[in-house]
Amino acid sequence: MSFIISRRKLMSGIAALPFAPGIAWSQTNEPIRIGVLAPLTGGGGPYGADIVKASKLAADEINSTGGILGGRKIELFVEDDETSATAAVKAARKLLDIDKVIAITGVWGSAPILAVRPLVLEKNIVLTALGSADEVTEGDTKGLVWRFQARASSWGAPAARAILNGGFKKVGLLHLQNPFVSSMIPSFLKTIEEGGGKVVSNVEFKPDQPSYRAEIEKVYAAAPDAVFVPGYVGQFTSIAKEIYRGGYKGKVFSLTIAASAGLDGSSAFVKNVGKEVAQGIEHVQPISPLDRPEYKAFVKAMGAPDGTVFPFAALQYDAINVLAVAIERAKSAAPADFARRIIPLTNGPGTKVATGVAALALVRKGEAIDFTGAGQDLKFDERGELLGRPFLHQAIRDGKDVIVGTVGGGA
Amino acid sequence: MTGYFVAILTFVSLAVLLGFALNIQWGQAGMINFGLAGFYGVGAYTAAILSKQGVDGVSATVAAIVTTAAISALVSLATIKLREDYLAITTLAFSESVRLVLMNETWLTGGTNGIRDIPRPFVDLVGGERYELFFLAACIVLVAAVYFLLDSVIRSPFGRALRAVREDDVVAATLGKDVLALRVKAFAIGGAVIGLAGALHAFYFTYIDPGEFAGFVTVYAFMSVIVGGKGSNRGLVMGACTVMILLEGTRFLKDFVPFFTAQQAASLRLIMIGTGLILVLIFRPSGLSSEYRLSSPKTADTTS
């Protein structure tokens, strides 16, 4: 073996010397391993790719500015939960036992979250969820479960307010039966009654039905002025078509996740049902304020056109950032240590910062920060519940979404 | 590391149990059960509902076995007046009915919300930390027990009669065999094993919802049997392992192809699973192992 060093190699070696301490430092340090258990196939498939992309964006930004804990990089382990409880458990097992992650993030949908939660808690690992079902943060979470999404029971009141604002008093309710939608019903009913309205019909429907005709007839039998149809886009597409064909009168309200037309009219829903059916449908959802500069910057970094609605990706981006900053603040990648730092970081008081890179710089100086985030101004309660998620009320006109107003955030 | 393998082996055990059931119903008796997922759901929900009511785990499991066996026997009675091919359609319809009942009878099954926090049997005794390992050990013991039970059934005169019915039911009937009784019994035995697997599924996951008892469960079970070799329980264990290696191994393979996006990698994984199965079927069309009578020609009963 010969050790002949060319002059060029020698020069490049010398040139690299100033960076050598950094290199040595990062080489002696293991990367921080974070799991992203996203719905890449199955029912959540439309959201999974963006969730992963946002996670990588956050990790890349932090890694390119030197990582955390003195040069340790964030390494992401991406697994597909196939939007199914069984598949999620298998994938989570791999993340926990093989990849040895310190947190599982990005889990979407009630069934995968509820199935994965016991495994994560048993290993004392942090779980950040993008799902709304109330059960996610109930029971003993050991302070390890953090929901980067509005709790489902807080969705009911803003939706009811949007309907009351439109002057509708006789309200029909046609809702999907699943943990997420069921949680929002009590607060919806209460807000309608308190606002002087009346729920004249309350009908449940199940996913994957060949037809929703019987349920639709039942709801409209009481002649409501407006009908609220919370569910997902697949079911709502069939229901909207059947309501249109049935010639029923009255306003239709749904969730943005189901009925969004998109600012440019490019959503799957409008493409599937056509402009006529979509016309006049209104929808409500907790949403990242589209005019928020931090959100605009996030959309740009994702390479999407201005005004794109990311229902989950922005908060996933924030979740990775929050975990990184919490680890830096705790000076430890042990879940029990850094999970305790999340509330002081997000709830302030301190200097307001929105990105992981900016926050890390301040935390290293030992300054107090109030992490705001791209998705919204993040605030948590001690159960790991995201507070003050703003709700946006939109209506479809000529196949495009038009903003009607905000209907107030609420815990 | 070990936790992952314990989990995977537990999944293999469940898959093997389902494969055993299919092997007696389809492999031995020639009765196609396309509604396996439905029976699996009956077992899981019976165990889950009873344990939520405070029934202990063992009794709940026994109840799941008995209920699933009884329902299987009832469903197989459909063959009284129908040609046996129609059993495939009947079972398929049955499994769809089960799914609808699970989704709509909210008072009993929790509807699409599913059942949460199913109590695990013996968890106080074993403790949470070692529970996974204990559960795997229990599964392996049960798989072994079922293997020997079914093996003795298959080698018994009853087993021979079943194969006779499978090959030609008219000949069997002419020789004085009660074809209907044989079929009902075979289907009920298979049902009992599915019920056991269902109960174990409920206890392992502690959370069940109707979505888990959909067609893919049936497909995976058929895959194990086809890969292993129809009719052979020994081959089936290999078949179930092969299918699991395909399902899980692809997870690691995709970690080494960095140039795909996450979504492409996830889809690629599903493509690899399909390709793997096709390759097995091309190169080993009769499965990895063959039926008992071919593999052990020297048993005493060949001379009788």
Structure characterization notes:
With 411 residues, chain A is α/β, with parallel strands linked by helices. Chain A has a seven-stranded mixed β-sheet, with helices on both faces. The N and C termini of chain A lie far apart (68 Å). Helices cover 43% and strands 18% of the residues of chain A. In chain A, helix 6 crosses helix 7. Chain A has two domains: 178 residues, 3-Layer(aba) Sandwich (Rossmann fold); 154 residues, Response regulator (Rossmann fold, 3-Layer(aba) Sandwich). Chain A is built from 16 helices and 14 strands. Chain A is elongated and about 80 Å long. Chain B is mainly α and 304 residues long. Helix content of chain B is 73%, strand content 0%. Chain B has 14 helices and no strands. In chain B, helix 1 crosses helix 11 and helix 2 runs antiparallel to helix 3. The longest helix of chain B is centred in the first third of the chain and has 27 residues. Chain B is globular, with a radius of gyration of 20 Å. Chain B starts with a helix and ends in a 9-residue tail after the last helix. The C terminus of chain B is likely disordered. The interface between A and B is large, with 38 and 37 residues.
Secondary structure: elements and pairs:
The complex is a heterodimer of chains A (411) and B (304).
Chain A: H1 7-16, H2 20-27, E1 32-38, H3 45-64, E2 74-80, H4 85-98, E3 103-107, H5 110-122, E4 126-129, E5 145-147, H6 156-165, E6 170-176, H7 179-194, E7 198-205, H8 213-220, E8 226-229, H9 233-246, E9 251-255, H10 256-259, H11 268-278, E10 282-286, H12 293-301, H13 313-330, H14 335-339, H15 342-347, E11 351-353, H16 356-364, E12 369-371, E13 391-397, E14 400-406
Parallel strand pairs in A: 1-2, 1-3, 3-4, 4-5, 6-7, 6-8, 8-9, 9-10, 11-12
Antiparallel strand pairs in A: 10-13, 13-14
Helix pairs in contact in A: 3-13, 4-5, 6-7, 9-11, 13-16
Chain B: H1 2-28, H2 36-52, H3 57-76, H4 86-104, H5 106-109, H6 123-126, H7 131-155, H8 157-167, H9 169-174, H10 179-205, H11 215-228, H12 233-253, H13 262-283, H14 292-295
Helix pairs in contact in B: 1-7, 1-10, 1-11, 1-12, 2-3, 2-4, 2-10, 3-10, 7-8, 8-10, 11-12, 12-13
